[in-house]
Amino acid sequence: MSMFMVLLVLGLFGGFLSGLLGLGGAIIMIPLMLTVPKLLGAGALSMKAVAGLSMIQVVFASLSGVVRHRKNKFVSMKLLLTLGVAVAIGSGFGSTISKYMSNKSLMIAFGVIAVVAAIMMFIPPKEDDSNITDPDQIEFNKPLAAVLGFVIGSLAGMVGAGGGFILVPVMIYILKIPIRVTIGTSLGIVFIGAIMGAIGKMVTGQVDWLLALALIISSIPSAQIGSMVSKRTPALVLRYSLMLVIIFTSVEIWYKIIAR
Predict the structure, then answer these.
(1) Residue numbers of the domain that contains 197
(2) What is the pLDDT of residue 146?
(3) Does the pTM of the predicted model rise above 0.90?
(4) Number of structural domains in the chain
(5) DSSP single-letter state for residue 180
């Protein structure tokens, strides 16, 4: 199987998770792109190549997903703008300096972020948000949100992620945002940050556009499907799904780091 076809299939999976859980897809796509192509005999991708491809995939998957969540009234524009600008600035910074980092240091950075996200998922969340009618009425600490957004964006930009896998736990457990609004809004934030991150990857020559096309084609429709399923999924199920995905990815990436 060719590398293009492998990434086409992986993009379907990553896009669906993006729409379903508001993650952007990078937390699962990065380990998959490092592992699956080699297993199927399509060749191997370096961490830098994967980071570039992942960032492009996140842009299109998050845009597709947030459009659907906006229609479902699960997006807080006030929160999106506050966090989105901070994440975008950080992502542009992180993705640019990543050119001067080794593959191993990028993998360790990704692993550390994944562990932090996994630990946060065990903190008791707020109550279910099924009765929320206007997401923009939700109150949160704006200065804290801006600082956290910049830090998350910088780290995510380094590893080619939109930042959703750490952004979602931070929004739920630190900023105290209900889970459905978190999922919908995080995709918009991830999209803004991923644009800046993608620009950083592109101007430093870290994107293989032919392979990126495979991820774009498959991520857009699957993110729409994931968003529709998310609306009909109980909040508790969404939380535990997030927990499982983040923990699995944390274990997977650290296994690769140690094995190397």
Answers:
(1) 3-259
(2) 93
(3) no
(4) 1
(5) H
